[in-house]
Structure formats: C-alpha cells, structure tokens
Design a protein that fits this description.
Shape: elongated
Structural class: alpha/beta
Largest sheet: 6 strands, parallel
Number of helices: 11
Helix content: 40-55%
Distance between the termini: 35 Å
Bound molecules: beta-D-fucofuranose
C-alpha cells in the first residue's frame, strides 16, 4: 500500500505539480500544510536517549501540524550522514540532528545549507568553523554538569586525609556529553593534589559495555581495591558499574564506593533513593517542546537564539522522595 501510494505520488509529481509536488520523495502523500521534520537520532543506547526520542515524537505529531521522518542511526555517524542526505533529497522543511560526535559534519551541513534547509542541533553539538551551518542548538551544559559533580566530591571528601581514589568511566568518545563531563573531572583532578585517578575506562554510554570493562578491570586487581568514587558519565554506565562492583563484593553508597551518575532518569533516582548511587546530576532529555519553540520562531520568520540551555539540578538521598520518583516520567 505504501509503495503504491509512493509510486502514484511520484508519477503525479512528474506530470504536474501535485498537492505534494515540491516534496516528491516523501514516503506516502503528505498534507502540504504539515511542516516536515527530518530527525536524525543517535540510537537507543540509554534510558535518556529513549526518553529524548519519546519527547520528540510526542510533540511533532500531525495534530500539532508536523510530519515527522524519524531516523535511528544505531550509534553510527555514517548512518546519520546518510539520513541527512536522504532528508535533503526529500526536501524536508527542517532537519533536527542529535549528532553522535562533534567532528566530521562540515560537508553534509554545507549540503543542507545549500539546499536551504535549516538544521537544529539537539542535545550534543558539532565542531564546525562556520557557525551558520546550523540555525540553533538546544541542550545541556555538560561542563557545568561535570563541575557540579566535582563540587560534590570536593565537599564529600573535604575532611579526607587519605587520597581520594577515583575510577572514571567515559561515554561515547568525542560526543559533547563525554567531552564536557570529562573536562570537568580533569580540571578537578588537576586542582586537587590528593585526588587519584585509578583508571579511565570507555563505557560508550551503555550498561553492557561498562559491565564488561569494569568486570575486567576489577578482576585485574590483586585483591579488593580501595575505591572511593566511580564517576560514571551516564546512568546506564552507572548501572553497569554497580552490577560489576556488587558482583565482586564491593558495597556501593556513602559508606563504600560512591557512584556518581549523570542523567537522573527514574532508574538512577531509585538507586539514589536506596543509597546505592551517591549523586545523580540531572540532564533533561525532554527537549521536544523547546525544539518546537525554535521551529515556530523560524516559521514566524524570526531568527531564534543560537543556544538554548535547560535548567537542571542534582539529587542525593537527602533531597529525594518517593513522591518525586512517582512524578518522574522518564
Ligand atoms: O547523558 C546519555 C546519552 O548526550 C546527553 O547521551 C546525552 C547523553 C546522555 O546516551 O545517557
């Protein structure tokens, strides 16, 4: 059925300017009053990402006046680039891009610019010389998130006479979230003589990868290591680390290994309320409404602000409650 309507549509658009004539390659007929959004999502690697996709899908609906073409790149930049090229061919009205990493976007964004399609970056950013290659960015300040975590370590260990031993598990290397959160920890390590980095591992923002690398690391220690903090660059990394640590007999929490996490999705807040995670730094995935605001600004012929940051907070057992968890919808 889909193919049939596509064939009919393409035939029509070749013969004369049909109702959807200026968007000949869309899969199926699209009401010309709808604003067409081509969305390039990273994947579904984390709870945060799933909540982010849901937030987008909930706002860019036909009832709200949109036709959403959603592409899941399965964590590969080459898939994101292919999707953008397809969206350009389809002549979508806007491209919304959650870039997996910062590098490597100049040519494809230039192609979008030449086609006259505005690109809105969501969540992470791109490292391009020409800032006019994207219209706006909506997301979090990852360096600031990391600095909040570092301040918490500083306060929690201010009386410590012994070294503070830290394991650092990074997210997808080269992504803005990894770069900002890593930079904050590096700054803090350099500023505190008694902070000791035991190891830096790559958890790629997933529970499975983290469980594997953390298990390997812990097994390589001669005995039970003395670990004060595990700085996990997202919740799914924290889940993998928690699983590996507990399996090897470590106790996690304020009296044992302090797990620090970023995102603060419901799963992590539950562990935080239980005391197994010491600190959850919030990173808000519900960015759909803000992205829509940017698009509406452009639809009205105005120029949106270049960067939009969301308000975020930090959670510990002290400021968490079961009621707050109930209200958390991701
Ligand atoms: O922290 C992580 C996700 O870029 C903010 O990516 C995002 C990060 C988030 O996979 O869970």
């Amino acid at each position: 059925m889909r193919r049939r309507s596509l064939t009919v549509l393409m035939a029509l658009s070749l013969l004369f300017v049909s109702a959807c004539g200026d968007k000949p390659d869309l899969e199926g007929p699209v009401d010309e009053d709808l604003t067409v959004i081509g969305m390039c999502q990273v994947g579904a690697e984390s709870d945060w990402r799933v909540a982010n996709s849901e937030s987008m899908k909930a706002i860019f609906t036909e009832e709200n006046g949109y036709h959403l073409l959603f592409d899941d790149a399965r964590q590969k930049q080459e898939n994101q680039i292919t999707a953008i090229r397809k969206f350009i061919q389809q002549q979508v009205d806007y491209i919304v891009l959650m870039p997996i990493s910062e590098a490597g976007w100049d040519s494809v964004l230039q192609e979008a610019k030449e086609a006259g399609i505005p690109v809105i970056l969501v969540d992470r950013r791109v490292d391009v010389e020409d800032q006019s290659l994207y219209a706006a960015h909506v997301g979090s300040d990852f360096l600031r998130e990391g600095q909040r975590a570092a301040t918490w370590i500083e306060q929690a260990f201010q009386e410590a006479e012994k070294p503070v031993r830290i394991i650092h598990i990074q997210g997808t290397l080269g992504s803005t979230a990894q770069l900002g959160r890593t930079a904050a920890l590096e700054e803090a390590l350099a500023a505190h003589e008694n902070w000791e980095l035991l190891v830096r591992l790559d958890g790629d923002f997933t529970q499975a990868k983290t469980y594997e690398v953390m298990t390997q690391y812990l097994s390589s220690l001669p005995g039970r290591g003395e670990i004060d903090v595990v700085y996990c660059e997202n919740d799914n990394i924290a889940f993998g680390a928690l699983q590996a640590l507990e399996e090897q007999g470590y106790t996690c929490g304020r009296q044992g290994v302090n797990i620090i996490t970023f995102d603060a999705t419901r799963g992590a807040l539950t562990e935080c309320l239980n005391g197994r995670i010491s600190l959850a730094v919030e990173c808000n995935p519900l960015l759909g409404p803000l992205v829509e605001e940017v698009i509406q600004t452009m639809e009205a012929g105005r120029t949106p602000e270049k960067h939009h940051y969301v308000e975020e907070q930090i959670f510990t057992t002290e400021n968490l409650s079961a009621a707050l968890l109930e209200r958390r919808n991701y």
